[in-house]
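Hey,

Quick one before I head out. I ran the complex with glutamine overnight. Inputs first:
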Amino acid sequence: MTDLTALTLDEARQGLAKGDFTALELTEAHLAAMEAAAALNAYVLDTPDRARAMARESDARRKRGEAGRLEGIPLGVKDLFATEGTRTTACSRILGDFVPPYESTVTRQLWQQGAVMLGKLNNDEFAMGSSNETSAFGPVVNPFLPPNWDAAKARAALAADRKGLLVPGGSSGGSAAAVAANLCLGATATDTGGSIRQPAAFTGTVGIKPTYGRCSRWGIVAFASSLDQAGPIAKTVRDAAALLTAMAGHDPKDSTSVDLPVPDFEAALGRSVAGKVIGIPREYRVEGMPAEIEALWRKGAEMLKAAGARIVDVSLPHTKYALPAYYIVAPAEASSNLARYDGVRYGLRVKGRDIVEMYEKTRAAGFGREVKRRILIGTYVLSAGYYDAYYLRAQKIRTLIKRDFETVYAEGVDAILTPATPSAAFGIAEKAEADPVEMYLNDIFTVTVNMAGLPGLALPGGTDPSGLPLGLQLIGRPFDEETLFSLAGVIEDQAGRVRAPRWWA
Ligand code: GLN
């Protein structure tokens, strides 16, 4: 039998429907692959018993003729999504062994469509990071090999301290690595400033952050509530569309989720893009951008042009303020959201002489360095005297960034094309130990989209000279994810997929 883990979600769906294999066989193949790839550290918890039980139920449903849209499809779940009866930690020590008594809306909808949960995926602690190195469970390894490395060298590094191997990006690094390494057919992820799109770009996978309000945030550990959105990471554009169709939808339990019908996003694939107007924002041509990123961007525009789209230059003048404004707004909201981790309600508690000392000791032991840095920045910019100077000003900039996009869309632009990241994947420990601002610069092309609440899709557009995947980003009008899928399909048809080598076992 062929390797079932090498299938795309769509191929697996067809194989299941034809009876070529069962959901249980498909699940077993993935559980075995996960075990063999444990050293990549993509999963922080395997849930084989739950996976097998769900797969058996799925096979039974199919026999009864009750197959859902994702019937029997094994998925990984970012550890930011609460899963009922299964440990959920946000990859922070402070949540300890927290087992939620409830299921997030997004994952519940996936299970309702017949999907199978394989386990919980690694991420940066509370989704704060761009390399998956802030996780309490340690870094995730990108399945792509560093330039000029062979399998033997990589296996030796994996057995030692992982140094020199590449990061998968973050914060959804486990999701992206697991999809790229064939350890699931798709994964849930979240994106506050780029955490779906940047890891997708680093691993040759496809990720979409839908419009703010498209997916319910209920049951997802909050980072910055006005920016957080759930979305899928998948092997192909079609797979991402299938997953988003199941994940999206109005939820009365999240007052910011929008009551709009969810289109069948897969139907947008193959739709003509002739006449679509694609904006190329000049402000994204940042100083010091590697030539290969510039070339990728040009190639992406040519691919869309070849399919009949019209390419126009546009200006988003407030782009340069997006990163500093994001790093005020996001920590401000995080400092407030994370106030709930106090040793009383969830997870870790470190005893103290009185309640104040208990809070202090618990938070000191429970949060990692990056999370503490964000809480400090966040409380500072919200404090009396600094609120007007920092937080209010950042909110004003946010409005201007949103207006930049509105202006461009009002001029008839249908979508915007940019690189997804300023570079290919970098090495583990290469940036984490340097200046944190160096790491924040990774989000330069992605944060504007969250600030404006728009949909953004990242997909592989090609590789750098050493074969590492490079990602393109398509930014759409609010609630027009369909156009992004149509355009992404056109790029994927021409650029093809970028597959990771299998060297770890
Ligand atoms: N890298 C960004 C940050 O650390 C974005 C993270 C995210 O999207 N969750 O804030």
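The radius of gyration is 21 Å.

Talk tomorrow,
K.
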